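Quick start: what a row looks like.
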Amino acid sequence: RPKDGNIQRTFTTVCDNSDINALIFRDSFFEWLVVYISQYFNRTTYVGKKLTYPELDRLIARNKPDIVIE
């Protein structure tokens, strides 16, 4: 759960258990799952707000996810 209480922020977790990078669009419920989901991916970027198309395009270009979960 985000320590600052801001569920709309974007953040990234890193685990060395996998070679797969994920981009996950989440809601407030999903914040409780972060600790469990993160262990299955190398780098996971969590997005808690709606993005414009240009923002989404930049996020995907920067993170190069193997999987996107909405």
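That is the whole record. The longest helix spans residues 53-63. The first strand starts at residue 11 and ends at 14.
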